[in-house]
Specification:
By secondary structure, this protein is α+β, with helices and mostly antiparallel strands. It has six helices and three strands; from the N terminus they run ααβααββαα. The longest helix has 25 residues.
Length: about 150
């Protein structure tokens, strides 16, 4: 680390990374996405937010080769979670969208994670501690704008 980085900043960075990594793993377990790879889950999430995307845009967003994305999309297609259609503006490209089952899967997983997290915070933290978490989240939000 550079000499001008305080010990508290180094510790906060390390602790934050470890806690978020553990929380992400736990939320994946709660969402029952064990039948999907992290890449497949991420693609479903992207499509849920964007609506429609090209296979090449999904590959770029995931920072994977188009061939790897093709494998991911094939697996999602086989499970009935996505649909692929030729792009009307460029028939060589494919447009990818979620199916109704894909939307249900994403929403069900999101709801399961939300319910687990809310219940855990309710059961294991006092009101004052939950307020501290809310305040900390406001501070951490600034990290996403850096």
């Amino acid at each position: 680390m550079e000499a001008d980085v305080s010990e508290s900043a180094v510790r906060a960075a390390r602790d934050l990374r470890v806690v978020f990594s553990r929380l992400r793993r736990r939320l994946r377990e709660v969402a029952a996405t064990h039948d999907l790879t992290p890449s497949q889950t991420s693609v479903l999430s992207q499509l849920s937010k964007q609506g429609t995307a090209t296979a090449s845009a999904l590959a770029a967003n995931e920072r994977v080769r188009p061939q790897s994305m093709a494998t991911t999309l094939t697996a999602l297609d086989e499970q009935g979670l996505i649909q692929r259609h030729p792009d009307p503006e460029d028939g060589r490209r494919q447009l990818v969208t979620l199916t109704a089952a894909g939307h249900q899967r994403v929403e069900g997983d999101r709801q399961a994670r939300q319910e687990w997290l809310a219940r855990t915070l309710q059961d294991h933290y006092t009101e004052d501690e939950r307020q501290v978490v809310i305040e900390a989240m406001a501070l951490l939000e600034r990290l996403t704008r850096q």
